[in-house]
Write a structure and sequence with these properties.
alpha+beta, five-stranded mixed beta sheet, four-stranded mixed beta sheet
Length: 160
């Protein structure tokens, strides 16, 4: 029998290798809106949304001064930040735009709406909100049918 994870399992925090800790902290604080909850000297920091211990870890243990990862290298494609509703997503995307960070893509996946960008170290970021499960598109057999349609970013930003 194949093992299946408990349905209550969630993916928790993400740790990223960065080249410059202070630059990464500034980005995740001022653009993404996280708060530093703890630091380990000049080598690592932990950030969170709200009162959680950390959603994101940043460290330079093996990457201080390192280059961006090659586009064709294996590794993390992106980390995803889930917002509670469309208005919260709109405010987050507005902050990205106002900070001058380029939006690299945007999509309506049927189950969610997502905006894509990169941090200063080339780590991909997805900012998204889920639609209610009862609104998710389904195939004729009842299985999930995700799509990759264009997202109206201007319409989203109008909510901010």
């Amino acid at each position: 029998m194949t093992y299946r994870a408990d349905p209550g399992t969630r993916i928790g925090h993400v740790h990223l290798k960065v080249a410059d800790l202070e630059r990464a902290i500034a980005f995740y604080e001022h653009v993404i809106g996280l708060t530093v909850t703890q630091r380990y000297g000049d080598q690592a920091a932990f950030l969170a949304a709200g009162a959680y211990h950390h959603h994101l870890g940043l460290n330079t243990w093996h990457s201080r001064g390192g280059p961006w990862p090659a586009a064709n290298a294996t590794g993390l494609y992106h980390s995803a930040f889930l917002y509670p509703d469309r208005a919260a997503l709109a405010r987050a995307v507005k902050q990205v735009v106002e900070a001058g960070v380029p939006i690299e893509g945007a999509a309506d996946h049927g189950v969610s709406e997502a905006v894509y960008l990169s941090d200063p170290d080339g780590n991909g970021i997805e900012l998204y909100r889920d639609r209610p499960p009862e609104d998710w598109p389904k195939n004729a057999d009842g299985r999930l049918k995700m799509v990759n349609s264009p997202l109206d970013v201007e319409g989203l930003l109008a909510l901010a």
